[in-house]
Design a protein that fits this description.
By secondary structure, this protein is of the alpha+beta class. It contains 17 helices and seven strands. The strands form two sheets. It has a four-stranded antiparallel sheet, with no helix packed on it. A three-stranded antiparallel sheet has the order 3-4-5, with no helix packed on it. Helix 1 runs antiparallel to helix 2. The longest helix has 18 residues.
Length: 411
């Protein structure tokens, strides 16, 4: 474990003097790490007795370094530590100015309301020294000398044993990923799907590839990785809406995100949601994977999909034209087997599409208003609606109305 990690562990366990020691050692190796100064400033304030002057110095160096790098999150953290140190030094006017600068950059900072009340109480106290309490002498960006990398790297030889311990390891660990890692409350995910795959993107910078744990199962997905704060971040989707093939599904960690490409076991099965609301229940019986994979309602035969029920302006509700055509075809077959006469209206379409035959028969027997309604509704809706009610259709343009689960596109 390097010095910075030891410092973080000591800070979390409230051993503040030890944290100061470890962060001092870490800064001697990498004097440009903004996070080290912020953490040491925190430790200085919490030690007993506290060293507020040293805490202020570290916060101002961190603020200057963060501003040079243009790291917004680190600028906010450093300015906040600076404001707290100034408050502890009873420079309430300066502290209030710094808290206001923090508020400009992050109005949702959770501790601002508490500190604003504390400052208001101090400034409004009758015994407050105006010269000391209300005077503002600080600038938004402090004029401090930033330590150079070369100057700091020359310090360790004062301890003859220190360079020999970890020369290559410490030279390689400037801890850049720590300073740019996305905070846990800012991490988000999105997803989209194709006919064959579901792609889930988790947007998080600085995910350590060597320390991330990924688990992809037939109905679940999980990832965990350490944060610079010392805690662990966990993300899981359990259960997924449908089943996937873990052996062909992949995960790719990049600089700003991680992409999971999940291979569907049933191609063409479009998921309405990413996760299922029905939990997976364990079964003692030895059932096949297919029987246990999906618990939400699905058609008995996954290869047979029901035909779309097109929108209609009929007051009696939508018609299933495919079902109606099937019934006519069945009726024709029964008449043919019985060798009985009768006009079923489909003789002229022997060997053709019975659905088209049915619509032609319907159109040819309709009155002029019904024919006009059918033509207008079909053409204006791009074939997605068919109406026989002219009084309804004649009022205006018939909009495209795709079946449920489908989307209209312009070509």
């Amino acid at each position: 474990m390097d010095q910075a990690a030891k410092g973080a562990a000591a800070l979390n366990s409230k051993d503040f003097s030890t944290a100061v020691t470890h962060y001092t050692d870490a800064i001697s190796v990498n004097s440009q790490a903004v996070d080290y100064y912020i953490k040491r400033s925190t430790a200085y304030i919490r030690t007993s007795p506290a060293d507020y002057t040293a805490a202020l110095a570290d916060a101002e160096i961190a603020l200057k370094l963060a501003s040079i790098r243009g790291k917004r999150e680190l600028i906010i953290q450093a300015q906040l530590r600076r404001a707290i140190a100034l408050f502890s030094l009873e420079q309430y006017g300066n502290a209030k100015a710094c808290f206001n600068w923090v508020k400009e950059m992050d109005k949702d900072e959770k501790t601002l309301q508490i500190w604003e009340k504390k400052i208001a109480n101090k400034l409004n106290a009758p015994s407050n020294d105006d010269e000391k309490g209300t005077k503002i002498t600080v600038e938004r960006l402090p004029e401090v000398q930033v330590p150079s990398q070369k100057a700091q790297s020359a310090k360790p030889p004062q301890d003859a044993t220190e360079p020999a311990k970890h020369p290559p390891e410490k030279a390689e660990k400037p801890s850049k990923p720590e300073s740019v890692q996305t905070p846990a409350n800012k991490i988000r995910h999105e997803w989209y799907q194709t006919q064959d795959t579901v792609v889930v993107s988790l947007f998080a910078k600085g995910i350590p590839k060597d320390k991330a744990t990924i688990d992809i199962q037939a109905r679940s997905l999980a990832i965990s990785f350490p944060l610079v704060t010392g805690s662990e971040y966990d993300f899981s989707l359990d259960p997924l809406y449908g089943t996937i093939d873990p052996t062909t599904s992949t995960a790719k960690i990049m600089g700003t995100k991680i992409d999971f490409t999940l291979k569907k076991t049933t191609a063409g099965d479009m998921w309405p949601t990413l996760e299922s609301t029905v939990p997976i229940t364990d079964s003692k019986d030895e059932k096949s994977d297919e029987a246990q994979e999906v618990k939400h309602p699905m058609p008995a035969n996954p290869t047979t999909k029901p035909g779309p029920v097109y929108p209609t302006s009929s007051k009696s509700g939508p018609k299933n034209w495919d079902k109606l055509a099937d019934e006519l075809t069945k009726k024709k077959k029964e008449k043919k087997d019985g060798e009985e006469g009768g006009d079923d209206g489909l003789e002229d379409f022997e060997g053709g599409d019975p659905v088209n035959g049915f619509f032609q028969q319907l159109y040819s027997r309709a009155d002029p208003d019904t024919q006009r309604a059918m033509m207008k509704s079909y053409q204006e809706s791009n074939g997605t609606a068919l109406s026989t009610n002219w009084s309804e259709v004649g009022k205006g343009k018939v909009e495209t109305q795709p079946p449920d689960g489908m989307e209209a596109k312009r070509w």
